[in-house]
Specification:
Chain lengths: 317, 310
């Protein structure tokens, strides 16, 4: 301590005074925030963009959606026209992805299948979202006996084997697009409801919700304006993961003969039709739908993982 | 503990009852009788058939007699194959499916945990990326696609393994591989993330400071704790393996329960569909129950009787 002080004093004789200038004490500048303020969503988006794998998934999904509508239009052949002279043709400059056992163009059908598969996935995710958020939101917000009762029902539904219920309902209602979506969502919303309830239970004790309540805001408005925006992260992640599992379930149902019925085609039903073809060497009939299912699953999964990291406020740096 | 088990046991029975009831009423809401075939049957035969299967009684009588038969584990005769009872099919198909399922589960658990641990220890290294690529591919590729690819490559192009059926250990390789890949991928990802979390804990640093060998740290201290989350998904995995057997048994022509179930769906053989659904559900619900109890025993931090409220 002693030594230090003496050192300081010793500096001045050797250095002229005019080397020193008063520091610019501009108050405004000192208080200015250097880092631009980012909203939660901007921050999450920035982090998502940095995740290469997740971005690959997102870009692929955008391309897939475009192709699902553009593909059938740019193809020279129709997807439903049967040409018995052109059975099982290998991919060529005329038939880009080959033809199937009825002479239908696989390229066109694969993109029409994409429309059906994506529709099933998105519809299931949206319906799960609507029911799950309403149910979980009310249960979590009301708490107490209401919560207890509502969660008992959820517990029973959650214990039901998902795919078995889906199969049963498909058997009873007869296969078809509507049946599949109905079957997938009738117990599918339970997972979403559990997540929303857990989140709402957490958020509803925060001060801003209490402030809202003291102003006399109505329950519905508190749930919509205060609670849901703050629970959106896990909800979005859950939705991104619902889409691929719905597409997967549809493929599974189609495989059992309970899925999409002709003339409509989905990737699952095309793969199922093509199973015998693989042994006779017509690999393209299975390859293209299978490749697209796998790529879509992959994309949704990596995007979901990426969103999970990006939307987690705890990971914010 | 005992109170929690009782509570779960009651919930389990309610869920089972719910499934039986749901199955029963769903099956009976289908329009038309199962005997409306192309085959012309006389009025009298039709009536005899219906009385044999109790279909002429009022619905609630049928319901109670069905509940009674479920409780006594007798699922009655098949409609399409009258010489066989549903119990016959179950007792013939179940051992095969059980074998396939257990072998798959063991393969998936061992390879999944190994992959996950290696990936966590070599975090962000080449092996980590390789393991996680395998894991993501495993989740992305549907098992029926994988099964067909395996048959084409390893049974047709290069005939190492038999194409189908179920009689020797060699027959088991391809179906097991096709069925185990998905669950393995899920276990690997879960093990990796929980292992990475555990490795940053203080007690691992303490163990390192004590000078324990890395092998001992990983197996004695880290892995034990990292495996807890894996235990929780075992129930769901069992469900996915079980439904996977429908597909795999169909592709490989394995005479298991899944094959009967798929056949019964295609022929609309209602007693078989009902019987197998109830049977499958019972297995799954009991699995979930056991996993819950096991989790409570394995993790001393969880006080079972308090878990309900959380």
């Amino acid at each position: 301590m002693e030594l230090h002080k003496r050192d300081n004093r010793n500096i001045s004789p050797e250095i002229p005074d005019d080397w020193f200038a008063p520091k610019n004490k501009n108050q405004e500048q000192a208080e200015a925030v250097v880092r631009p303020s980012l909203s939660y969503w901007q921050d999450a988006w920035n982090r998502l963009v940095k995740n290469k794998l997740a971005m690959t998934g997102l870009i692929f999904l955008i391309l897939l959606t475009i192709m699902a509508f553009l593909g059938p239009a740019i193809s020279p052949h129709s997807g439903s026209q049967q040409q018995l002279a052109n059975q099982n043709l290998a991919p060529s400059s005329d038939y880009w992805f080959g033809t199937d056992e009825l002479g239908r163009d696989v390229f066109t059908r694969v993109w029409q299948g994409a429309q059906v598969s994506l529709f099933v996935g998105l519809a299931a995710a949206l319906i799960d979202f609507a029911i799950g958020v309403a149910y979980g939101g009310i249960a979590g917000y009301k708490g107490g006996k209401t919560d207890n009762f509502m969660m008992r029902i959820v517990e029973i539904l959650y214990g039901l084997p998902y795919l078995l219920v889906v199969i049963l309902i498909s058997v009873v209602m007869g296969p078809g697009l509507f049946t599949i979506i109905f079957a997938l969502t009738i117990t599918g919303w339970v997972g979403m409801a559990r997540i929303v309830r857990g989140q709402v239970l957490q958020v509803k004790n925060y001060e801003f919700v209490m402030a809202s309540k003291t102003f006399g805001t109505k329950t519905g408005r508190i749930i919509r304006k205060n609670l849901l925006p703050n629970t959106m992260g896990p909800i979005i992640v859950q939705m991104t993961l619902t889409v691929p599992s719905a597409i997967f379930a549809e493929a599974f149902l189609s495989f059992l003969g309970l899925g999409i019925q002709p003339p409509l085609a989905s990737w699952g039903s095309m793969a199922n039709d093509a199973l015998s073809a693989i042994l006779t060497g017509h690999w393209w009939r299975l390859f293209f739908p299978a490749l697209l299912i796998s790529l879509t699953m992959f994309s949704f999964n990596v995007l979901g993982d990426g969103l999970q990291d990006a939307l987690d406020p705890k990971l914010r740096r | 503990m005992l109170r929690y088990i009782m509570k779960r046991l009651i919930a389990m029975v309610i869920t089972l009852w719910f499934i039986v009831t749901l199955t029963f009423f769903l099956m009976h809401s289908i329009p038309g009788s199962p005997f409306n075939e192309e085959r012309a049957t006389s009025e009298a035969v039709q009536r005899n058939l219906e009385s044999f299967y109790n279909l002429d009684k009022p619905l609630y009588v049928q319901y109670f007699s069905y509940m009674k038969s479920v409780v006594t584990l007798d699922f009655g005769p098949s409609i399409k194959k009258p010489s066989q009872s549903v119990n016959d099919m179950l007792s013939r198909g179940f051992p095969v499916s059980f074998e396939l399922g257990i072998v798959t589960l063991v393969v998936a658990i061992i390879s999944g945990i190994t992959l996950g641990v290696i990936a966590a220890l070599r975090h962000n290294g080449f092996i980590d990326y390789l393991a996680m690529t395998i894991a993501v591919l495993g989740i992305s590729i549907p098992n029926f696609v994988l099964a067909t690819m395996l048959i084409q490559q390893l049974a047709v192009n290069v005939p190492i393994f038999p194409v189908a059926t179920w009689s020797s250990p060699m027959h088991m390789v391809l179906p097991t591989l096709a069925l185990a890949t998905g669950p393995m991928a899920i276990i690997a990802r879960l093990t990796r993330s929980s292992m990475m979390e555990v490795l940053t804990q203080d007690y691992i640093r303490t163990a390192r400071a004590k000078g324990l060998s890395p092998v001992k740290i990983v197996f004695r201290h880290a892995l034990r704790n990292a495996l807890l989350p894996v235990v929780t998904v075992l129930g769901t995995l069992a469900a996915s393996i079980l439904t996977g057997t429908f597909v795999i048994e169909k592709i490989f022509a394995i005479p298991g329960m899944g094959k009967y179930f798929v056949e019964s769906i295609n022929t609309r053989d209602y007693p078989v569909i009902m019987g197998t659904t109830v049977f499958y559900s019972a297995i799954l619900i009991i699995m979930l129950f056991l996993v819950d109890i096991a989790y409570g025993i394995l993790d001393p931090r969880i006080k079972l009787h308090k878990k309900e409220g959380s």
